[in-house]
């Protein structure tokens, strides 16, 4: 299992433009499918080694922002864990995003990533949803 994982991750990372979301989604799905231990799936040795390999091909900050843009805060934490990012900063941000209603969390992530059209869409959806801050 995973015999061709690294070449596939390499291909995703080196495409123009890079398909980092696809690479991270593959790591996530494999981690969830192969999860057997007590550790969270994305903190398993295999998942972490895959993330480290992908970070060798692409910048950690770009990977972190890509995982944030997927609205997958567990994946973002797994990416940041091996980076030079300050845990006080990224853990605080991730905790804050998790504590917000879904639509508002997505709005905040989109604003951080300067994806204004998507942010506006999530803000609009908030009026349709009955979630409150």
TrEMBL record:
GO MF, one annotated term: tRNA binding
Tree of life domain: Eukaryota
Domain ELP1 alpha-solenoid intervals: 3-94
Entry's Gene Ontology cellular component terms: cytosol; elongator holoenzyme complex
Family annotation (Pfam families): A-sol_ELP1 (PF23925)
GO biological process, one term: tRNA wobble base 5-methoxycarbonylmethyl-2-thiouridinylation
Name of protein: ELP1 alpha-solenoid domain-containing protein
């Amino acid at each position: 299992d995973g015999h061709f994982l690294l070449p596939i991750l390499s291909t995703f990372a080196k495409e123009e433009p890079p398909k980092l979301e696809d690479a991270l989604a593959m790591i996530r799905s494999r981690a969830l499918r192969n999860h057997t231990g007590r550790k969270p799936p994305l903190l398993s040795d295999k998942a972490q080694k895959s993330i480290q390999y992908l970070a060798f091909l692409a910048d950690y900050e770009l990977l972190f922002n890509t995982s944030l843009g997927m609205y997958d805060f567990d994946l973002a934490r797994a990416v940041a864990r091996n980076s030079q990012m300050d845990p006080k900063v990224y853990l605080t941000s991730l905790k804050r995003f998790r504590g917000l209603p879904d639509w508002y969390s997505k709005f905040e992530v989109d604003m951080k990533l300067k994806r204004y059209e998507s942010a506006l869409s999530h803000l609009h959806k908030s009026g349709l949803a009955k979630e409150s801050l």
